[in-house]
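Record format v2
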Amino acid sequence: MRPFSYEKAATPAAAASAAAKNPHAKFIAGGTNLLDLMKLEIEKPAHLIDVNGLALDKVEATPEGGLRIGALVRNTDLAAHDKVRKDYPLLSRALLAGASGQLRNKATTAGNLLQRTRCPYFYDTNQACNKRAPGTGCGALAGFSRQLAVIGTSNTCIATHPSDMAIAMRALDAVVDTVQPDGAQRHVAIADFHTLPGDKPQVENVLKPGELITSVTLPKPVGGAQVYHKVRDRASYAFALVSVGMIVQKDGTGRLAVGGVAPKPWRVEAADAELPRGAKAVAAKLFAGAKPTHDNEFKIALTERVIEASLADLRRA
Amino acid sequence: MKFTQTEGKNRTDRQKVIGKATPRIEGALKATGKATYAYEWHDIAPKPAFGYVLGAAIAKGRITSMDTSGAESSAGVLAVVTAENAGPLDKGNFNVVKLLAGPEIQHYHQAIAVIVARTFEEARAGATKIKVRYASEPGVYDLEVAKETAVKPPARWGNEPDSAAGDFAGAFAAAPFKIDATYHTPAHSHAMMEPFASIAAWKGDELTVWTANQMIAWSRADLAKTLKMPPEKVRVVSPYVGGGFGGKLWIRADVLLAALGARAAKRPVKVALPRPMMANNTVHRPATIQRVRLGAGKDGKITAFAHENWAGNQKGGSTETATLASRALYAGANRMTSNRNATLDLPEGNAMRAPGDAPGSMAFEIAIDEIAEKVGLDPVEFRVINDTQVNPEKPAQTYSTRKLIQCLKTGAEKFGWSKRNAKPGAVRDGNWLVGLGVATAYRGAPTMNSGARVRIESSGRVIVETDMTDIGTGSYTIIGQTAAEMMGVPLDRVDVRLGDSNFPVSAGSGGQFGAVSATSGVYAACLKLREAIATKLGVAADTLEIDDGFAVAGSKRVALGEVAGTEGLSAEDKIEFATDREKHLHYTFGAHFVEVGVHAITSEVRVRRMLAVCHAGRILNPPAARNQIIGAMTMGVGAALMEELVVDKKVGFFVNHDLASYEVPVHADIPHQECVFLDDEDPTVSPMKALGVGELGICGVSAAVANAVYNATGKRVRDYPITIDKLMRT
Ligand SMILES: Cc1cc2nc3c(=O)[nH]c(=O)nc-3n(C[C@H](O)[C@H](O)[C@H](O)COP(=O)(O)OP(=O)(O)OC[C@H]3O[C@@H](n4cnc5c(N)ncnc54)[C@H](O)[C@@H]3O)c2cc1C
Ligand code: SF4
């Protein structure tokens, strides 16, 4: 861990402009991801800007009938929020499927969206990893890739985005609200927020230097039956092999986003359209162009089965 | 005291304290954070400096240059110790690879330096400033490939690598029913809660280490040998250990580097291995490939039994003898077993809970399920039919006690086994396919010589001192119970002091010999102390009665404290086991029953119920014994369903080297677990009439899970762990 300086920001815009002034600055929220990575010398910020004092910890109704979730709302509080449980149960379930109770108490909405991959080679600084050390190669592609992505990948990186919360937000068409160093605000659809690795796997989203997430806005509730089915090697406290967040209406139409398979929450509108025709048709569209490895090709068939199981659960419910 | 023949009636038979459910006597200290674990001796070793271990970045090769100047000038750094400046070092008898490497690198994360600084953070920051250049060499990391060049290993702990009886080939060829299957078990990590950790302090040429260790005397000797100093000048202290599972049987890099760091920095130094270094820096249970061939007659009797095993290790390392249990567990006149060991350049493989038998039973207890199905017999019935009271390889040798049939039948009854549908995939509960599985638990009950010192103080308190360790197993309590029973005092008047090389040498904790051996040593010392009391009172020892803190002989009734006087009265002895081990086989037994649910669509597996019925001689403290069994069952669920140190065969290391990626069971994975002990006493092994329980529970349980998965789905996965992808492919 490198020595670093520390400040508490007074306002969101001040935080953003402070960050823009120092190219080696990072925001710190719950710290559950950032501090681990700093101890391992994977993240090496010279300056930390603590955003916890900013009043971004509210969940409020929007005039459009949706919900604005402050960037600092803790995962535990968000999952337990009445409106979320009632109108966006998918989000509540996805949150509760992630990490552990203690971690969720600390983890924030923005921090969760920005958590970094769990690729084991990314975590070991002796290993080649284009995401951690651009240009060094990809240890996982040549090595053990069972946990990693099957689609949206590139020759340089096949890491997944590990968030559960983001899967639900993708299915719910959330919008990420930010403030820039000059005080201007931006609203980025979550579909466009995370980026694919291409030849720059070190870049994971569209945030500009200094840009701070202030909230995530959910559009008005879409109703329907909602399930989050997360499959992993143990029953709790593990990242997804595959997870499916799905909303199905009475008429059989719906939408879904999938986790554990791609560098970002994976949703394909053409796959949504296949929902009335069942899991096989959906999976075919979701994974068109997939490039799995020998270790992780099972994820494609597994996703199809998880979709099938989710549909079966919804039919029974 | 020599233990030479079957024990008759003795004072432990009173069972006023022994055998009674007794909460841990050190429990409150642990629950309140007052038990000092290795890293926590703040009072005795105040203001220590911190050592951070730098591990090799390659798996095999040489260090061509190492520039430590950046670290040496880094803030707060007091010393950097490498193989180059450490002075001459030897290697411990129980260590295979060097604990401080250079220039040769034998495995990934092998320690190459310790950076000592005022704070942990400064030490860690200093470590990143060391510049190392390596010349990598190709290594062998794939057991499947190395298997072809595996060789016959030497005998270890008296066990020959091969065995044979009768005519296996002929009997197998002639058998009407047979199976021939190959099973894979991966490398496992001990993943104990407390990492390897030590504090070291020098006073002149004398060294004290506070460390986390299972075997004090071995480790004192090995640390002294490594440092080329006389063992008398080394003191090893390890009264509380946060789990070992065999990983802490020997010294590791933490204790050596703490000692070297303390010498260089001229002050006490503490070193804990960071979790991500545990898998590759220390030891693990080696992976195995096992082939089992079984032949059976129409009556269900095994006629041919072959079990061959391949494992690998560093050059000079031991092998994982997975076939030992197959030699004598089931009947059958024609049999063969063999073990072959390959040289691998992975980290050193070594003992982990029930070495040999845990992975061995993972394979052959599935094989038994497979052959039972072929013959058309219920797997409980099949095991009953193939029970034996003698060693089938050497029929003159009988089991001292063997109640396997009773374990199986009691378990079957309690578990509702008769409701099992023998047809796989036939039982459904909603979206879940439900299956039941059974397997035998079987583990040797060895003993080791063990000493203790027992003293009565003028206050009447009884103090027991022995270098025995408590690795979370409950040694404090059973030793206290033994002393209380023997000295006729209530348990709360006994103080037990463990884990210090200043105390008499004990068996230590390992191979499930600890409880029976250490308590027998205390028994011996107590007998001696009773003699001393009799002498002091001027009465014959056999007329002496001690109860409720009073010594009574004839008309004399004197409080123990008074007998002891201001000087106190003390006695030391050790138990030496001279039992003719050839006459009997000494084993512990159990039957595991498991119910699983397998999701019909997604293949997710959930264990729903578990039961173990065991017999292991006299049970000294029932809740502690139960704790051992259900803990081992939990570990076995991990081995069955999720645990695997994954080898990167190109780079040559265990990739998933932290607890986020090496998954062990969490609460949500473990259902209701039940454990029943049959009434039992085995007077042939020790005066305590107990056997061991620490390893029994893990033997067979993974196979019971696998067999339940098969019963639920009809899918026979022979490659552990049984993960979703494998179930999907089968
Ligand atoms: C053992 C373990 C298991 C876990 N399991 C799961 C799991 O199963 N599923 C799952 O989804 N997650 C899991 N997590 C991840 C956990 O959800 C994240 O660590 C957490 O959500 C991060 O939130 P935080 O507030 O602590 O972020 P921090 O660590 O504080 O920050 C993360 C990143 O976000 C940036 N950041 C924070 N706030 C802002 C902001 N307002 N604007 C711009 N940038 C910002 C920081 O600079 C940093 O780069 C697990 C974590 C651990 C340690
Ligand atoms: S998959 Fe991505 S994160 Fe993993 S090693 Fe390759 S480049 Fe690094």
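Residues A 26-34, 36, 51, 71, 98-99, 103, 106-108, 110-112, 114-115, 162-165, 212-213, 239; B 660 surround flavin-adenine dinucleotide (ligand 1) (CB under 6 Å).
The mean pLDDT of chain B is 97.
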